[in-house]
Predict the structure.
Amino acid sequence: MAATSGATPSAHLERKGMKAGVCTEFTVFAKIKPGHADALRELLAKTTSGSADTAGNVEAVRELGILHDARHVIFDNDTRYMFASVFDGTWDNYIDDFAKTVVGKLFNEAFSHTEGFPGVTDPGVKDWFIAHQEPAGIFVSAYPDLTVQQIYKDQRVDEAFQEVLDTAEFRAMLDNPANAELRETPAFQKLLEEASA
């Protein structure tokens, strides 16, 4: 389910969040409702427990295909909550896409422990996020020109290429004198160097 098009814009035109290449950072700060910190902490712990129940979250994030990373933090003596993430695409699509997945359900549950959160499917949710969002002072990405989809593809290509390198047929092809010219090309040498790094 990659990012959707035709996302619904909110009443606000300004979208906060710094960009680094194709990546955009998103950081939201909210006040935790009095007495809700333990329930929020329990929810977050359950979500990352690695149990079968949480496998759907990982699969939904992978299916969404635009999220580089995310962090949930309870701080200031259990009075404040921060959600921070890095994503590809537009801000509106990011919010719209999350609302459609099991991850949106987690958002709803987590932010329901904060003051004034209307719910991820509420028409006013984007305005709420904008009001509680703060852009980073500095945002750096180690791979600013790679989308999540490109990274997934690079992983698949690398795995397939490594399998080819390990076959007897590939070794025989390399040893064949008819392929000596190909083996000596700078492009092929670079490919072999990168594969062995």
Q: What stands out?
A: DSSP finds nine helices and four strands in the chain.
